[in-house]
C-alpha cells in the first residue's frame, strides 16, 4: 500500500499478476505444478516467456487470420499455455532459446475435443504457425 492506495503488481508486459494466477487455476496437466508455486515470479516468468514467443515469433503468421488478428495477445498466450498444459505442445529449449513443439498428433487432438469445437479453426491456425516458426528456425544456421 502506498498512501492508502492499493498497488497492483504487474508482469513486465503490464499484465496483473492476479490475471496470470487466474489463468493458472485452469491448468490440470503438465503446468499444474505452477498453481502451487509460492513465488509469483516463476509463474510470471513462464507467462512472459510465452508472451515473447507468441508476440515475436507467431505474429507475422497469425496477422492474416480473421480470428487472431482481432484478439489480444493475452488470448494467444492463454491458448498456447492451455495446449502446453494438455501436452499437445511441448515447451523445450533449442540452441539456448525456448521453443514450443507441437506433438505429431496435435491437430487430431484438437479435432477430437468437442469443448474446442467453436475454436477449432483458430487453434489449428496457432498450431500451424508454431510449425511454420519451427521450419523457419531449422533453416537458419547459427554463426
Ordered list of secondary-structure elements with their pairings:
Blueprint: H1 17-24, H2 40-57, H3 59-62, H4 73-85, E1 89-94, E2 97-102, H5 106-112, H6 120-139
Antiparallel strand pairs: 1-2
Helix pairs in contact: 1-2, 2-4, 5-6
How would you characterize the overall build of this protein?
The chain is mainly alpha-helical and 143 residues long. The protein has one domain (17-139). 49% of the residues lie in helices and 8% in strands. The chain has six helices and two strands, in the order H-H-H-H-E-E-H-H. The protein has helices spanning 17-24, 40-57, 59-62, 73-85, 106-112, 120-139, and strands at residues 89-94, 97-102. A two-stranded antiparallel sheet has the order 1-2. A hairpin with a 2-residue loop joins strand 1 and strand 2 (97-102). The longest helix has 20 residues, at 120-139. The protein is globular. The termini are far apart. Mean pLDDT is 82; it is low at 6-14.
Amino acid at each position: 500500500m502506498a498512501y492508502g492506495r492499493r498497488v497492483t503488481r504487474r508482469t513486465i508486459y503490464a499484465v496483473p499478476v492476479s490475471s496470470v494466477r487466474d489463468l493458472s487455476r485452469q491448468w490440470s496437466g503438465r503446468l499444474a505444478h505452477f498453481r502451487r508455486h509460492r513465488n509469483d515470479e516463476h509463474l510470471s516468468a513462464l507467462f512472459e516467456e510465452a508472451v515473447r514467443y507468441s508476440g515475436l515469433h507467431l505474429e507475422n503468421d497469425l496477422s492474416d487470420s480473421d480470428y487472431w488478428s482481432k484478439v489480444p495477445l493475452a488470448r494467444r498466450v492463454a491458448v498456447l499455455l492451455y495446449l502446453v498444459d494438455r501436452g499437445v505442445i511441448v515447451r523445450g529449449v533449442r540452441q539456448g532459446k525456448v521453443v514450443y513443439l507441437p506433438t505429431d498428433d496435435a491437430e487430431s487432438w484438437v479435432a477430437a475435443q468437442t469443448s474446442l469445437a467453436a475454436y477449432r479453426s483458430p487453434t489449428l491456425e496457432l498450431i500451424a504457425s508454431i510449425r511454420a516458426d519451427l521450419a523457419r528456425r531449422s533453416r537458419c544456421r547459427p554463426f
